[in-house]
What does this fold into?
Amino acid sequence: MASVQLRVRIDRKLKKKSDVILKNLGLDAASFVSMALMQLVNRRALPFAVVESDADYFATEYGLSAIQRTRAATVLTNETKRARRSGKLRSVARPSDLAS
It folds into this structure.
């Protein structure tokens, strides 16, 4: 299969963060982009949901002001942290985390 070079510009921090995750999944950025493009072609649609952030959704849905949205985001963040500390919620960073 003949290949072509695709050059893109992305934020340096985003690249570093995504490289770490991809490495943990056994992939590199080029493989991920190829997989995403293959799914785009196969599905004839984006291979993932494109949604607004939770904060933006709730602000729109419930008519929250900027201050209310910030307060709600803080409450949700704190509740998530407490749930993780107590063991009610765990992080999943790689597929093997689901087996434990």
In short: Residues 10-49 form one domain. The chain has a mean pLDDT of 86. The CA atoms of residues 55 and 74 lie 10 Å apart.
